[in-house]
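pasting for ref. prot 1 ->
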Amino acid sequence: MACLEAKHLSLALGDRHHASPLLEDLSLRIESGQIVVILGPSGCGKTTLLNVLAGFQAPDKGQVLIDGKPAGAPDGNRGVVFQNHALLPWLNARDNIGLGLRLRGQSRGQRHAAAERWLTAVGLRGQGERPIQQLSGGQNQRLGLARALAVDPAFLLLDEPFGALDALTRERMQDLLLQLWRETHKGLFLITHSIEEALFLATDLWVMQGPPARIRQHLRPPFAHRHAEGERLRSLKNDPEFDCLRQKLLHDFLEYADG
């Protein structure tokens, strides 16, 4: 079972005389088959934590480990899905998916076969030749997800990937993400400021406050597992248990803000 760990991370911006701490002695662990969701308000340090986990930014103290070994620069073990899809506009849908495979030296035929498989997996079958400018926002997010999965990373890191989508498309993408998680058993790390999204997607939910980023709560909502067992999204979100947890987290958020 693969494991991605953050151990005692600290990071500050500025010089030693005027440093603003963003992370302070923060530790967490993500294993294969988990969906670790970080829930917190804007500016609390969620994206900074993801950037350190992905290898985009080095911490001042602490380290990131994969299976017990130090993980430095970005590598194929960690796929990233960004808030804006970050697709290349001069490439069509198929070639955007195959970009990482091209960098790995795979042949054109191998790249196209992999791209077609992932286009089908994310509901974009037959769209490979289309320029990304002709795709909707939701379709481009599906494409970004397919591109990250095509290189077969052990872990998928998602930075508020559905925040800019309309409500209906956002729910469809949440449904798709859980379907892909069920099929691939990858470890997922997702950040959001939506209480409803966090409750629905998380197997492990960490509530963050900051800066500096610190964990205030750890919950294990059952809804992602229940969805994997066949319960529908709407039924789960209408469940009284779901609403009770949502109201509790909202109340806690207001208390943190007042504190």
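and prot 2 ->
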Amino acid sequence: MSFWYQSNLLAKALKWLLSPFALLFLLITRLRAWLYQRGILASYKAPVPVVIVGNLSVGGNGKTPVVIWLVQQLQQRGIQVGVISRGYGSKAKSYPRLVASHDDPVETGDEPLLIAKRTNAPVCISPNRQQAIEHLLAHFPCQVIISDDGLQHYKLQRDKEIVVLDAQRQFGNGFVLPAGPLREPICRLKSVDWVINNGAETSFSQTVMTLTPQVAIHLQTGEKRPLKDFAQQKITAIAGIGNPQRFFTMLQKLAINVVESQAFQDHQAYDLALFEKFNKNQPLFMTEKDAVKCQHFAQPNWWYVPVEAEINDEQSEQFIAALIQQVKTASKSTAL
């Protein structure tokens, strides 16, 4: 909700009006976490290390690029990685469901399909994360499982936790739902293994991630063109992600002349009718997450702009090294 990130009188009034409900939400979530941590409620321990990539706030913070980056880093070091996801928005006929790069995003959800396409790692979706892990391990020799989201899913035990933070929006007004955007209070950061800031350094950051675009890719043909080739053209841009303005701002910083833009809901279900109002005589840019849902009705002037997560610092090297050591230790224990 927009008032979470505003400081006008109306936003402040709404925050305090909803604060009793936020307090109730906080008490329930803290009690639930405590019950799992004390073993009063049963939780699942996977036979291989599990890494959660999540966030404290609702909305897009850049988790998916981090998941892709982490999978690729481990693959480059010879580690067999599997990915699980709740599969938000998916309409699969049954769960758990393995995701293939040629699947229909309606069946799989957009983010799991994007991860599968970019990494070629086995991906499984299910609202039941234990079932997803067991299904993956029954079909693939995974040495480590990366969970896309699930920081607050304490029913699943985890070995490492990564929190991704949008440096621009951060924690909004600092209140938990519904008075603010937080699923858990800010102090939760003290217990996670790694905090990654998307876009810039803040007082909470341990590592800064930069999302770097290089090319635009044609949805129909797969042709790649440097973004600078579009510098003299008028562009339409659409984005159905957690923070659409981040995509539009990124294009503008690259000297792309965005003359028309449209923000859609995160996980937006697209059809061709939604695009009828846009100028068909100028290129239309979208995110890679949008492109996986628009591929089958793509038009000749449609392009998507993939981004690569750049995470290069001592903290990232230490995290990867510690995780690989944990994976190797777990593999030896399993072998015995």
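The chain has a mean pLDDT of 94.
The chain has two domains: 24-79+143-210+311-334, 215-305.
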